[in-house]
Write a structure and sequence with these properties.
This protein has 330 residues and is of the alpha/beta class. The protein has 13 helices and twelve strands. The strands form two sheets. Strands 2-1-3-4-5-6 form a six-stranded parallel beta sheet. Strands 9-8-7-10-11-12 form a six-stranded parallel beta sheet, with helices on both faces.
Length: 330
């Protein structure tokens, strides 16, 4: 029996788009993947976000080329993530070529962080999913769907010695640095990794916009850690701090990666209490990072079992090979 085909379009995001592609293939589908953006140059990525119209000519040429490549093939599904760049005309043409295809939309960002194109195209999709609690509440077209974890984070050692009391790995933005420094200064055996996409971007934020005034150059990396490196850090941590973006209520990828790695999650996202898997034995929620709360966190971290058993078996539905099934089993 011939395998069904999926057209998958998504922005490049830390290699997760490749992991999703592989998960779809593992589930028995042929997948044609195309990056949503014409380029992943950090400057152009910013333009796509704030003023996409400046790049319309290049975008239209790029999607005409995709249409040429796919027009002789029939697809069972069109799976789109984010949708900040894809033109409406392309979606319309795809539907003409594939009238039996199901169109599925997902976003791992809140619409506070997406551009207007993401909302404008939703009417063309059969199923729409968002990871953001508030966006789902405000827009009935959405079904809530959390993010996932990949195989690197599964702690197969079951119990692993912990090198760090608490760690953080993430992009430098908003007030993350200040919050982390304030907390970590009161705890022993910490690890913090701050990533910025480009030196010019960090300079713009620091010098021109006046952000990150207290962040020293040597404290920022302009090279990403590999996913395997991040996984090893989490597996070697008693706890991991996760701070969501301002205006975002969805649970980050880190949420599931940390728990799968066998570490306690410390998060600033109070919405996690709405999740079916929420368990205060494994998840600490920061309501207000004042001195009293910091003392309480330190005391809880000190009491954590340095060889806590992972709970990824309880999160099996969020393992990426299982996570994709909701999209394609419809």
């Amino acid at each position: 029996m011939s395998r069904k085909s999926i057209l998958f379009i998504a922005p490049a995001f830390f290699g997760y788009e490749i992991s999703i592609t592989n998960a779809l293939i593992e589930n028995g589908y042929d997948v044609d993947f195309f990056d949503e953006r014409t380029s992943n140059n950090s400057f152009l990525k910013a333009i796509f976000r704030v003023k996409k119209s400046l790049l319309n000519s290049a975008i239209n040429k790029y999607y005409k080329n995709i249409l040429t490549k796919i027009q002789q093939k029939q697809y069972a599904y069109f799976f789109l993530i984010k949708g900040e760049v894809v033109p409406v005309w392309f979606i319309v043409e795809f539907k003409k070529l594939n009238p039996q295809s199901k169109l599925i939309y997902y976003t791992y960002d809140s619409f506070n962080n997406n551009n207007a194109n993401s909302l404008y195209i939703l009417k063309h999709f059969d199923s729409c999913y968002s990871f953001d609690f508030e966006d789902v509440k405000l827009n009935p077209v959405f079904k809530l769907k959390h993010l996932f974890y990949t195989g690197e984070f599964i702690n197969n050692l079951n119990k692993q010695d912990k090198k760090y009391s608490i760690s953080f790995v993430g992009t430098l933005h908003s007030s993350r640095y200040k919050t982390i420094k304030h907390l970590f200064n009161n705890i022993d055996k910490t690890f913090a990794f701050f990533y910025s996409p480009a030196k010019w971007f960090f300079l713009l934020e620091k010098i021109i916009k006046g952000k990150h005034a207290n962040v020293k150059w040597h404290e920022v990396s302009f090279e990403k850690l590999s996913r395997q490196q991040v996984a090893e850090i989490f597996k070697s941590s008693k706890s991991v701090l996760d701070i969501q973006r301002s205006g975002q209520t969805g649970l980050t990828m880190r949420t599931f990666e940390v728990l799968a790695a066998g570490a306690t999650l410390i998060t600033t996202n109070t919405h996690i209490k709405e999740a079916a898997f929420y368990d205060p034995a494994y998840i600490m929620v920061l309501d207000d990072l004042n001195d009293t709360e910091i003392i309480g966190i330190k005391e809880r971290i000190d009491k954590l079992d340095a060889k806590m058993e992972p709970i990824f078996n309880e999160l099996n539905e969020f393992y990426i090979n299982n996570w994709v099934k909701e999209f394609i089993n419809q």
